[in-house]
Design brief:
The structure is a single chain. With 431 residues, this protein is mainly alpha-helical. The chain has one domain: Ammonium transporter fold (Orthogonal Bundle), CATH 1.10.3430. It contains 15 helices and four strands. It has a two-stranded antiparallel ribbon with strand order 1-2. It is globular, with a radius of gyration of 22 Å. The N and C termini lie far apart (75 Å).
Length: 431
């Protein structure tokens, strides 16, 4: 008994010491372990989850090219981020617009540097995975027709000129943060940003050869479903990890993320079933992703009921954007990056201003809980993101075109398929 009492006392002293260390700005091992795991989860979302999700929706002759461009985007982002991207996004603020260049090649940061209660190295790597998936999401609008070399150049320039400033505005102490905009894990920074950029880039490239005149079937809906499952799994790190602590709010974010995804998957499938009399697996997978997108900005601010509302609207709104809005406007967004990420990200950002519950997070109160100002702030942040992303992406596309000698592959390669024309490989042997 005495031994047990001594062990209990020792454990209590260790816990107290750890708490005191965290309170003084030291490293909390529990929080650090959780963010390392979250970083690994979000990392998996790009070269595994998104690569399969997008690859399966592309045509069979472009499947490997789509996966290669997704994986390459992750590699590019990994290098750009540690060389200058982190510094631009999270370096010392410059007039609320951009971080400085104090941390080029992560200079001034070491193993003992701390951000909150986790090592700065871990924080920087966690944020890198967000930059990587954001630029990779843009790809969904332009598969089947963009030059591989142009995509690599575009990725470097876009992360630098578009992603880093917006990340700084929202998460790095910039003007949106000062205004009070709520974006827990990337409604503005990731999804509206990527969706609008994808729309601009697909308009700059023009429609695919045969678009609207010939069927363009997905190469493997089974791969897309597997990719959606991996995205769903990784999204728990994306949203719950954004709390940067292993605590109750992270648990709440985990819960509402799963709930919104499930409700949206059923809502998209139900809407499609009602309209076409066919509940497709592609629709179910797309709805799940729509629900994940929409809950992302709200994950740390809304309760369970709010998550269900967000998911329900996301499924129906996403289906409308992809099946009706795109056809009416006539743009060729290959894999519906704008319809799913741009439009559902917009809904999620607006919903955060409506449904933010101070009982969940005392720092945020939405319109439905007595704070109409928050909705106005959200709308300003959305419009600011859309305007900057659209203009800056157009400039980046123009510069890329000059540097790469064009954005688009030649018509012969496009018709033959980019897997063989660019990479000399084939995903399938067609008998």
């Amino acid at each position: 008994m005495k031994a047990k009492a001594a062990l209990a006392t020792l454990a209590g002293l260790c816990l107290s010491a750890g708490t005191a260390l965290a309170a003084e700005g030291g490293i909390d091992s529990g929080n650090t372990a959780w963010i390392i795991v979250s970083t690994a989860l979000v990392m998996m979302m790009t070269p595994a989850g998104l690569a399969l999700f997008y690859g399966g929706m592309s045509r069979y002759k472009n499947l490997l090219n789509t996966i290669a461009m997704t994986v390459a985007a992750y590699c590019v982002a990994s290098v750009v981020w540690v060389v200058w991207g982190y510094s631009l996004a999270f370096g010392p603020d410059r007039a609320g617009i951009l971080g400085g260049l104090d941390h080029l090649l992560l200079s001034g940061i070491g193993p003992q540097s701390v951000s909150g209660t986790i090592p700065t190295y871990v924080f920087a790597l966690f944020q890198m995975t967000f930059a990587a998936i954001t630029v990779a999401l843009v790809l969904g609008s332009v598969v089947d027709r963009m030059k591989f070399s142009a995509w690599l150049i575009f990725s470097v320039l876009w992360i630098t000129a578009v992603y880093c400033p917006i990340a700084h505005w929202v998460w790095g102490g910039g003007w949106m943060s000062r205004m009070g905009a709520l974006d827990f894990a990337g409604g503005n920074v990731v999804h509206i940003n990527a969706g609008v950029a994808g729309l601009v880039l697909c308009l700059a490239l023009g429609k695919r050869v045969g678009y609207g005149r010939e069927a363009m079937f997905p190469s493997s809906i089974a791969l897309t479903a597997l990719g959606a499952a991996l995205l769903w799994f990784g999204w728990f790190g994306f949203n719950a990890g954004s709390q940067l602590a292993a605590d109750g709010l992270a648990g709440s974010a985990f819960l509402v993320t799963n709930t919104s995804a499930a409700v949206a998957g059923l809502a998209w499938m139900g809407a499609e079933w009602f309209v076409t009399r066919k509940p497709t697996l592609l629709g179910l997978a797309s709805g799940i992703v729509a629900g994940l997108v929409s809950i992302t900005p709200a994950a740390g601010f809304v309760n369970l009921g709010g998550a269900m509302i967000i998911g329900l609207v996301a499924g129906c709104f996403g289906y409308y954007s992809v099946s009706v809005l795109k056809r009416k406007l006539g743009y060729d967004d290959s894999l519906d990056a704008f319809g799913v990420h741009g439009m559902c990200g917009l809904w999620g950002a607006v919903a955060t201003g409506l449904l933010a519950d101070p009982a969940v997070n005392a720092t945020a109160t939405g319109l439905f809980y007595g704070n109409p100002k928050q909705l106005w702030i959200q709308l300003v942040s959305i419009l600011g993101t859309i305007a900057y992303t659209a203009v800056a992406t157009l400039v980046v596309a123009y510069v890329t075109k000059m540097l790469a000698g064009g954005l688009r592959v030649d018509p012969e390669s496009e018709v033959a398929g980019l897997d063989n024309a660019i990479h000399g490989e084939r995903a399938f042997e067609i008998q």
